[in-house]
Amino acid sequence: MFEDDDFLDEDWGSLDELLQRYEQVKKGESSSIMDEEDFERVIEFYFQNSNEEQALLACDIAGTYYPFSTTIMLLRAEILTQAQKYGQALKMLDEVEENDPNNLDATLLRSDILLGQFKYDQAAMWLEQKSNEFSGKEKIEVLLELSDVYDECEEFDAVFDTLKRVIKIDRRNEEALQKICFWADFTKRLEESATLHTQLTEEDPFNALAWFNLGAAYQGLKLYEKSIDAYEYCVAIDEKFEFAYRNMADAFMRLKWYDKAIEVLEKHLEIAKAEDVIFEAMGYCWEKQKDFQRARHFYRQASQLSPQDDTIFYKIGETYAREKQWEKAVKSYSVALHLDKDNAAYCMAIGNCLMEMDAKSEALVCYLNAVRLKPGNKTTWVALIKGLYASGYYDEALTQLEVAREHCGDKPDFRYYHAALLLELGKSKEAMLQLERALKESPTKVKVFTELNPEYLRRTAVTDLISKYKKK
Description:
Blueprint: H1 12-27, H2 36-48, H3 52-65, H4 70-82, H5 86-99, H6 104-116, H7 120-131, H8 136-153, H9 156-169, H10 174-186, H11 190-203, H12 208-220, H13 224-237, H14 242-254, H15 258-271, H16 276-288, H17 292-305, H18 310-322, H19 326-339, H20 344-356, H21 360-373, H22 378-390, H23 394-408, H24 412-424, H25 428-441, H26 447-450, H27 460-469
């Protein structure tokens, strides 16, 4: 009811005069009567300036001249509501409703008061009851308010159902269409949403939001080709519908149609402000097509817009690693680690590059840092144990293996590494016992063992054991 733009600069002169007249009325010095609208402006002025006492006094004075004015009564009720004087506000609304039973503002304000009192169920019941007494746009306003109340009540299916009721009255209601897209996904009612929006698009084929929601429903159901068709209809109707391009690109990426995804993302860049997520998605598409130079180009554009995003620098490092440009990869990973010093994955990535560069001691330091950061993560221990193995520190690797078991349990991978380490230490019998236990538990993971040193397959004892447990 109170609008911030009610008192623009050009109105100040007339407002000053109005306030002077009001002061005369208040003191009983005026022979003329102020209009009801003038009283409204005075009340709103005091309320906007956080002068609740004067606003209520103005309501009292206005009420003596216009005792049956629902507008004045509503203003008083709203001021009392803002002051959390809910009991007085409700009494004032009772008076309003005696004079005007179906006053929309009074209906919505009573709902706000009940919410302020944490009486969510009562607010919902009130609006449900009143929604039957309104029609057209007013009914829609009540139902939209009701959907928000159901959200507060955490009755999320009721939110979805109420929004459906709005759309049945007005199939182009922007607020309801935008909200129902989210709630369809949140309540797992995507099939129902697809049915609803299919019907909408049949009845109103130029409804861009309905096509978008249909695409989103299909996308949530992983029916990506159908979702793309819906998004294409959406952008044919509204070629500047940004989120349709975003979602369409995502659908193409999930289908691994990276060329198509890039085309859609390029179109998004034409119609909308450049964003890091769009450049990052383009980088991802080029990376998947193994065009690492172009991938880096877009990742770098993303990093310029979001220089504190460590994941982008990590992705740049990944492209260099895929090209075996280890030094450049280390530099990018190091930037990522600088931005997120507690990221074990970044430590491991740097360690892996240093191993490839034959800087084994520095690599082991990185692996130790990864283990320190994520002691319960098997992957960090595997990196450290493999690093120690590759560096010839077999005894230390066995020691770390025992610590890894304490943190992560006795994993089959650990038994395969144990067997390999014992072989390197010349303890063949113990090694074969560990290898057999590993094969019994997880024969499919034997590559963990053989990839450490393919020469192990030249040993008859090893090949015999592997053959014994190989799945027929």
